[in-house]
Amino acid sequence: MQTVLDVAAMQSRAYRHKRQGESIALVPTMGALHEAHLKLVRRARSEASVVIVSIFVNPTQFGPKEDLDRYPRTLEADLRKLEALDVDYVFIPSAKQMYPEGFQTEVSLKYLPKHLCGLSRPTHFAGVATVVLKLFNICMPDTAVFGLKDYQQYRIIQQMIADLNLPIRIVGVPTVREEDGLAESSRNTYLSPEERKKAVAIAQALQRIEDAIVKHGKRDAGELIELGIRVIEDAGGRVDYVAVADPDTLDDLQQVQKRTLLAAAAFFGNTRLIDNRMVDLSETVEEKDAENR
Ligand code: PAF
Question: What is the third-level CATH fold of 186-278?
Fold first, then answer.
């Protein structure tokens, strides 16, 4: 495994592999690697002959009052985990390398960031899309692997790839959960033991909504959202949003449709966590496949 700190060095190595006809899979991360990241890396390993994992805590995706300074940084442990997974390159650029003086270009998306997390984090997704496009140009992947826990991020990158004709296949990997159902997240490390116990309510809220849809035939989004809010608030969480949305446009729905995204964000103490579930009411496997195509 080679550690590369320099943008030009990473780009020339990637270029050399491409010229030799090799395929590259990229897993962009901000480090503080946990089981969910490792699942992305294993998936990348099965997709390409060369695997690059980037570790970069991207300042432009954090708002002024967000947790950039205290975001967990565990580089040595991260490198040990990646070594064990047979990763070829770990790309660890500095902020100066990624955003040299005079940097001024930004990817902007019209509609997808106007929903869900974008409402309370208005500059976040422009920062994400811009850094991911830079990582794509530096690492030249054929395949890029992202976790579906950050579903809105996944959709935005998928849209950017389509809109800008990037020759990259995006792979979304299902959310990894802890034993009680809490989605794995680097930010879980901020939770006190008491908050950690309560935080599972975000997963439970979405599960309760899914049950209301699938087992009890509920279809009214307003009623389902109220149910989700109640579950989170009863556990002591502060809701940012609970949404019943179209998985492609992320528009709010009035009524549940065949494929429906259930998503939530909530604070436990000062820690903001997100989660989502996809409900698919298609009746047959063929129908499900067609919907997912
Ligand atoms: O999901 C993340 O960790 C980040 O948003 C990403 C994709 C690495 C961009 O900084």
Answer: Pantoate--beta-alanine Ligase; Chain: A,domain 2 (3.30.1300)
